[in-house]
Amino acid sequence: MKAMEMNCFSSILRSMLKLSTNAQSLAKKSEYPDDNRPALIMFEEVVIVDRFWTYVDPKYSFSLKLPRWWKPYIVVKRTNHPGDAQHAILFRFKYKGKVYQEVLGIYVFRMTLQQWRKKGYKDSPYVVLASRNGNTFAYLTPEELPSEFLDKTGNDFDYQKYGKQIRLIKRMVNDNVPKAVKTFRFIAK
User: Fold this and answer.
1) CA 100/CA 170 separation, integer angstroms
2) pTM, two decimal places
3) Which of the residues in the chain have pLDDT under 50?
4) What is the DSSP letter of 157?
5) 24, 40 contact by CB (below 8 A)
6) Quick one: which of 92, 122, 128 has its CA closest to 107?
7) Which residue of 23, 87, 94, 189 shows the fewest CB atoms closer than 10 Å?
8) How far lies 8's CA from each of 5, 17, 20, 133, in Å?
9) What is residue 85's predicted lDDT score, i.e. its pLDDT?
């Protein structure tokens, strides 16, 4: 009986090791900038590949899951915003210490969703995320790349000099933001 239990245990251990090795090789094949691969976390017999980090806003009690590879490229700036939006949480692009424009802005409007629509925001570039306690939450992404990426003529972007930054921003805005905003959730205080 003990030999049978030992063989079963060894078999499970080999399976776990194989699963872990497969997950590691998948992580190695992933295209993550600056070798920022997903963390491998092992719980009993399950290997989880953690590809996200969660931003939690302390003032408005919401969370948002963002790709883990963003972490070295993002600075979060909270600001009072002029106009109807009372507050903005800006996820600004950072590369080699220089901070550029936001790749995602979450805006808090002090008005109900009905008031927000009456003011014509439903036809604006702002996209509604949710409404709660008399506040409407919306997001906005940039329509253009940062002007710092323009070439000397100012007529086109300098892909030779800023190619990597441009690819990162495009990936963030076009591929990641649409998925990330779907994870917007209010959390209990």
Assistant:
1) 14
2) 0.72
3) 1-49
4) B
5) yes
6) 128
7) 189
8) 5, 14, 18, 56
9) 87
